[in-house]
Each structure stands twice: as structure tokens, then as C-alpha cells.
Amino acid sequence: MEHLIVAEHGASEGRAYVRFDAAAPAGAGCNERLGPQPQAPPPTRRYLTLLCASLFSVGAHVCYTMTSSIEKDLLASLGINNEQYGTLNSAVSWASLAGLPFAAGVFVDGIPTRFAAVLFSFTVFFGHLIFALGVMSQSYFMAVIGRIVFGVGESTVLVVQGALVCQWFRSREQLALAIGVTEMTHNVANWLGKVSLHVGLAIGGSWEATLWFGLAVCFLSVLTAVAYFRIEKRADPAEFIARKSTPRCTELGGLQKLHVLFWMFCLLHLLVSNVEHLFDAISAKFIYFKWHMQWSDAVWVSSLNYAMPIVMSPVVGHMLDSVSNRMIIASLACALMAAGHIMLTYLAWTPIAGMLTLAAAQSVLPTIIRSSAALVVPHRVTGIAFGMFGVAENFGKVLGNPLVGYIKDQTGDYFLDGQIFVGMSSLAVLLCVTIGVLDARGENALRRRRPAPPPEAQRDSLQAVSASAGEVESANL
């Protein structure tokens, strides 16, 4: 029988519940639930929640990429070399070496997300304040301390955001679209951070004003987190939100298979995110040296890789909710990322071509990776899953940022760094293909998931099964 229907009676309320065991598509077992699904929240509340979730991480993204915009001035003001500048960037990720994003994931899975949203967004604000004061007082040590504290919030606020989106949207067949919206705001914030030097010059007349502009954005992010706190507090979690306390379900292909796919996504995220972030940290200076541009022009060109994702991320998310070949798309996007770095490293073409090629790849990859990983973990541990993503990403940053600066100091250019980026992108292509093959041979969890039948269809199917059973019994008599 195609649809296995089990009728059960609520022990406490005496109501009949229906569970579709075999009717759910492969990989959907983690959303299995006895009893009626939670009532969908009012659209205004749900999308207002998504807006808040998208905005309370903006400060973290702006201030993380801001150092690339003011790199030249930071080196002169603090009297540091390229390797020390790399250490300044890697300090953001030191908290992850202690597994802090993982601990944040456990924290998020155990309590309402509103508490973590306010706590971690305030940590971002406080850390950037220390960094700004350190730079203004020309204290490299204080600036590093500020980046460490900032990294505590930056690495954990994204964990909260990922778990929050899964909590409100996972059961609505709109998960990829919701993640695409958050990625859109990530890219807006990253772009704003890359051009923040121009903002600082416009509002304050000096590059130092860029630091205080970042602090103002962090403060607005804190206010957004407070707004989300009020929204979630007013919601009735038992009625509106797909809670994490669902009964234990059969995990994807068994525990061992789940472990393999999830950790392969972690490795893929490590490669893709670090190619993006390590290059971002030096892209303005790389373009400045190779093409001999004015610094302000190099800053503008280095921000072009965020232009296309601002528009395309939600579109890609909407598409992913209705296609079944997402890993093929991911493979092509990783190949585009490799092509972009080949153009920038080996060719003398205008850097605009390479940056726009990277923009096409970045329009796709973050949304695919984050939404796909959420499909292969039980809903009750999405916080831990995104926490491990944070650990993987920041582990690469800790090692990569000083290494990129060291190679530049030793070789005098970024050619070897560019070759490393090409190699990492190529490895990501192979990993995407491997994940797709393993999933196709297993449970097909990454393919399009059919929506669950409406309550009327469930009731009609149950009646049809009962009638069929009665006919069989009559025939036997």
C-alpha cells in the first residue's frame, strides 16, 4: 500500500490522530508528528519575525567586512604588518576554537531563541566598541581584544538566526526562501561594510568615522533583537511555532548516514565560506596592488561580489523550494567560484569580470548549503547543527587569515593566495558531486519534498482504508 495510515487515540483527550508514515517523502521523517500540525501563524507575524531575524545580524556582518575597507589606514595607524592584520581578522574566530558556537547551539535548542538573540547581538555591539576605542587610542592589543569579544557575538548570532528560521519556517515548505532572505541581508551588510570607508568620509570627514558608523549599525541590530524578543514572547509557541519537542523520529538513513551527510556539508561550508571571507579580507588591497587603482576605487570594485547576491538570494531560495537537483546547482556555483578566482589570479582582465563571476556564485552557495544542511538534521537539534557550521567556518578563518598575510609578506604579492582559493573552490566542486551521489543512493532527503496532505485528505484516506478493510472482511465471510 502506498500510504500507510495509522490511527491512534489521544490518551488524555480521547481524540483520533492520524499519522502518515509511508506517505511522507524520504528524508521528511524528522518532521513526523503525532496529532494535528501547528496552526500556521498569521502571515504578518511570521514575516515580521523573518525581518527581525534578517536584521539583527547586520551589525556583525558590517563590522566584520569593514576592516577590508579601512585596511590601508589600519596598517598605518596601528603600525602593523600584513600578518598582524591577518591576526586582527582571525581574532574574530578564536572563540570558535573553544567550541563556542556549538555551546550556543545547545543553548538555543534548550530555551526560546529570543534570549540568545538579545544576548549575542549585544555582545557584537560591545566587542566593536572595544575595537573602535583600541584603534582610536592606537593600541593594537586593545583592538585585538575587541575583535575577540566581537567574535563571540558574531559567531553565535548566526547560530540563533539559523535556528530561528528553521523554527518558524521549516514546516511551511518555505525554508530555502526564508534562508535566502536572510542571505540577502547578509550580502547587503557585507557590501555596506566593504564601502563603509566612503560612508565614514561622507558623514565624518575621516576614515575613523567609519568605526563609529559600524557601532551605530550594531546598536540598531540590538534594537531589532529586542523587537524580536517582544514578538516571540507574545506568540503562543504551542499553537504557532513548529516546536523542537517533537517525538523522536527515524533519522535520515539511520544515524550513521545522517552523520556522514551532515559532516560533509560542514566541510563544504568550511571551504566555501573561507574562500569568500579570506578573500574579502584582502580583496581591496589585492585589486589596489595588481591593477594600480586608487584606493577608493579598489574599495568600490572589491564590493561588487555582493551586488548580485543582494537581488538573487531570495530568488534562489524560492527556486530551491521547488527543485530536486540542488546539488547539481551547487556544483556549478562552486565551479563559477573557481572560475572567478582564476580570472583574478591568472588573467590581466579587468577585475570587474572576476568579481561579478564571484557574485554569481555567492548568489547561490550560502542559501543552498544552509538550507540543505537543515534538511538532514532532526528539527530538535538545528541550533547544534548551525553551531557546528560556525565552528567549521571560524576554524578556517583562524588558520587562514594569518596565513594569507604571511604569504603576502613572504612573496610580495597575492598570487599564491589566489592559487589556494582556486584549489579550495575546485575541491568544493568535487564535494558537491559526492554529496549528491550519496544522497541519491540513500534517502533522497535533498530532493523536493511533497507537501503533507491536508486534514480533509487525511480523513478521506482513512475512511477509504476503513471501507477497503470492510470489503475485504465481507469477501472473506
Describe what you observe in this structure.
With 477 residues, this protein is mostly helical. Helix content is 74%, strand content 2%. It is built from 21 helices and 2 strands. It has helices at 43-55, 58-69, 71-78, 82-90, 94-97, 100-110, 113-136, 140-169, 175-194, 196-204, 209-234, 237-240, 255-291, 295-302, 307-320, 326-346, 351-362, 365-375, 382-411, 415-441, 455-476; strands at 5-9, 16-20. The longest helix is centred in the middle third of the chain and has 37 residues, at 255-291. The protein is globular and about 50 Å long. It starts with a strand and ends with a helix.
Outline of the structure:
With 477 residues, this protein is mainly α. The protein has helices at residues 43-55, 58-69, 71-78, 82-90, 94-97, 100-110, 113-136, 140-169, 175-194, 196-204, 209-234, 237-240, 255-291, 295-302, 307-320, 326-346, 351-362, 365-375, 382-411, 415-441, 455-476, and strands spanning 5-9, 16-20. Strand 1 and strand 2 form a beta hairpin.
- The CATH topology, please? Growth Hormone, Chain: A
Number of helices: 21
CATH superfamily: MFS general substrate transporter like domains
| Highest CATH level, the class | Mainly Alpha
Main beta sheet: 2 strands, antiparallel
Question: Within the largest sheet, what's the order of strands?
Answer: 1-2
Low-confidence stretches: 1-38, 238-258, 450-455
Number of structural domains: 1
Number of strands: 2
